[in-house]
């Protein structure tokens, strides 16, 4: 799943590159020898061109390290109104969506809830898909190998907070014997823009060896607050 090697980013994803799914027995027979190959199962790339699929055909599948991270903080004021917001972006990284191992393959976690993707699984009458056949078999061509099926674009942009406030003018406060009165509303993690199919693209990682691997991390929550501050 992960390999550290000179010349590549730390903890880069490593495994077999999926070039499609086998659609017929004829395709299986004509392809490089691959253990467990059958219609509806993963078809791996013969990287070294030796006519067989084995450990030597594994390759680097992407880096969990973003090429760019940054944020923009914006503050606007108009008369008694003030607005503060922050937008964070992470671009150019990949995520190893290990959740798919649990949700897309029946034998991985027998009896558990399945992901919605299995409704698009390969069938002899439905071959225009990237989701492998839904079956009980577990082998080299199904769910036992790290491969590019799990690797996704991890880029995202998130509005981390938005705060809107209004400070009442002194001419109003003098009438109610107040020296200060401010009303505000705020939201955190208001929205996230991403193509990642998992729960949250901000997967991070607790150590170098699992950085960028999504094992079902709990997503950040959206929050709302209303504030009132005053002084006499």
Brief sketch in words of this structure:
This protein has helices spanning 25-30, 99-103, 170-173, and strands at 2-3, 12-15, 18-21, 42-44, 59-62, 68-78, 81-91, 94-97, 151-153, 156-167, 180-194, 213-214, 223-231.
Characterise this structure.
This protein has 3 helices and 13 strands, in the order βββαβββββαββαβββ. The mean pLDDT is 92. The protein has a domain of 111 residues. β6 and β7 form a beta hairpin. The chain has a 5-stranded antiparallel β-sheet with strand order 6-7-10-11-13, with no helix packed on it. The chain has a 3-stranded antiparallel β-sheet with strand order 1-2-5, with no helix packed on it. The chain has 232 residues and is mainly beta. The chain starts with a strand and ends with a strand.
For the terminal residues, how far apart are their CA atoms? Answer: 62 Å
Relative helix content: under 10%
What structural class do the secondary elements suggest? mainly beta
Number of strands: 13
Mean pLDDT: 92
Order of helices and strands: EEEHEEEEEHEEHEEE
- Physical arrangement of strands within the biggest beta sheet: 6-7-10-11-13
How many helices does DSSP assign? 3
Strand content: 35-45%
Features:
13 strands; mainly beta; 232 residues
Write the layout of secondary structure elements.
Layout: E1 2-3, E2 12-15, E3 18-21, H1 25-30, E4 42-44, E5 59-62, E6 68-78, E7 81-91, E8 94-97, H2 99-103, E9 151-153, E10 156-167, H3 170-173, E11 180-194, E12 213-214, E13 223-231
Parallel strand pairs: 8-12
Antiparallel strand pairs: 1-2, 2-5, 3-4, 6-7, 7-10, 8-9, 10-11, 11-13
